[in-house]
Sequence to fold (175 residues):
Amino acid sequence: MAARSDSSAESTETEFSITRVFDAPRALVWKAFTEPERLEQWWGPRGFKTRVHKLELSPGGVFLFSQRMPDGREMFGKWIYREIVAPERLVVVTSFCDEKGNPVRHPLSPSWPLEMLSSSTFTEHQGRTTLTIRAIPINATASEHKVFEDGKKSMDEGFTGTLDHLAEYLAKARA
Fold:
């Protein structure tokens, strides 16, 4: 499997969106997003070590994870699953959190929205999978919306690196 063949990012005034085409079947890409041992192999920026603390793949269930930065600092994140349509769509509320899963401010950007609604769609054509991730701030103040808007370039860079990491994982993984 080739690592990457196509990628694009775009956004509207409130929505961030990034699309990537992977040379891998949808079933494998879905497993990479929904199985703890696979998520630990690729989720997060390059150089970060991800650890899954909890993954309850059901509506209302929680994915709680930590990421250790290259300098040794650790941050936690949480997804609360809102919609799961295997293997087509995941909708989650995402937030930074403490080790117990309580939402906290972004460790590097304290004005970042506390929560975002994120949807990931997976479509397959001729054995290749198109992944589109969309995110919007929810329950956010006007200033948090502005910080989100201003941070889209950084989000694009972060997701591009993470999806590069996923492409490398998929090239080596077995269904």
Q: What stands out?
A: Strands lie at 6-11, 16-22, 49-55, 62-68, 74-85, 89-97, 115-125, 128-138.
